[in-house]
Task: inverse folding
């Protein structure tokens, strides 16, 4: 390995200051995206989702319960863990934005997962959700990949299992994704009410949008 | 932790067989996406990119040099390393699809990066590219986050530095992203020719699309 690397000759004209890129990026999002229908406390979250996917047309697909920002932010400040359905999503959660050194956990690679998935006739992503067990209570959940994980989570909750503080439900794809997000938006807890939630309706979603939402829920500041 | 977890009551009607979800997903992509203008050897790559972002409208934005599939696949089979600009992208590369236990490396968190970025007046993502040094020669590069990393990489190559076997250049965002991808598509090496490349033009892109492209370039099979 080169002990003393040197930079190449600058040949292109581009902004190379990280903070300036952030400022201009979020400025562009605000300029190009119509956030007028987005509740005030959700705007920073929607801005970061747009920033993560590079497409202002995603805005109308974002939907959320009215209490999700307050609930998720309070939970994270109180030290809640973040559970994710994929390692990729977990690695997109920015540690320095977490207000209480919150743990970010993914159980997909737990050694018990393959056998449980087989035994339960479900996906590994869904089986992994059941390994969150009682730690799920009061946690923030982010799902960016597997619709089956979101369905399974809702089933755990409807069964009277532990209740997360908030659900970021943004699985991507063509099979079950849109349906799982409708199920999230329409779920009713035993006894009434909902777990606070945010989603991106339709086929789109993914780890980048879901981690962007978690990062924005964790810290209001854009620049971090 | 619960030593003997049990599954919740199934309340929703959804496909819960992983292999079946894959099959149906790729079937939906082929059904809904117009791949008629996509070269035959690139179709599996474009299919996986659509699958990763959940949006068939991305297809016309994908562009590539005619030799990128052959070049990247040959390099990976020969044991080439994969360099990425973000940890998130690295964690999206599926180890079991890599044909030669290929290393997947990201130098963004190298301890030297912050000082080099400051000294060179550039971003940490760009400075991290220079730490790939001679290992870049013959490697496959995937950029899904930082336009500055892609510009910097092109500048390294134009300076007569080490040449990667192929570049997956899909940074996302509103500042420099589209321009960096045009620079990739139009670059000319000293002495002529290009590094084989693939991109998604415009603001869209990201770790999910870039890792999907690497996974498809690594293994032709859809189901893995």
Result:
């Amino acid at each position: 390995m080169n002990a003393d690397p040197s930079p190449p000759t600058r040949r292109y004209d581009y902004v190379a200051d990280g903070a300036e890129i952030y400022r201009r990026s979020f400025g562009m999002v605000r300029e190009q995206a119509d956030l007028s229908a987005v509740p005030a406390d959700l705007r920073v979250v929607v801005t970061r989702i747009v920033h993560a996917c590079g497409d202002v047309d995603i805005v109308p697909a974002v939907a959320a319960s009215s209490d999700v920002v307050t609930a998720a932010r309070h939970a994270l400040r109180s030290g809640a863990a973040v559970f994710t359905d994929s390692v990729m999503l977990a690695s997109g959660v920015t540690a320095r934005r977490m207000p209480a050194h919150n743990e970010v956990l993914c159980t997909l690679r737990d050694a018990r997962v393959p056998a449980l998935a087989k035994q339960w006739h479900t996906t590994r992503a869904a089986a992994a959700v059941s390994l969150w067990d009682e730690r799920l209570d009061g946690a923030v959940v982010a799902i960016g990949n597997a619709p089956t994980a979101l369905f399974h989570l809702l089933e755990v909750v409807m069964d009277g299992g532990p209740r997360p503080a908030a659900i970021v439900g943004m699985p991507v794809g063509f099979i079950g994704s849109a349906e799982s997000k409708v199920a999230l938006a329409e779920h009713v807890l035993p006894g009434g009410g909902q777990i606070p939630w945010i989603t991106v309706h339709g086929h789109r979603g993914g780890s980048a949008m879901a981690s962007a939402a978690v990062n924005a829920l964790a810290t209001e500041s854009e620049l971090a």
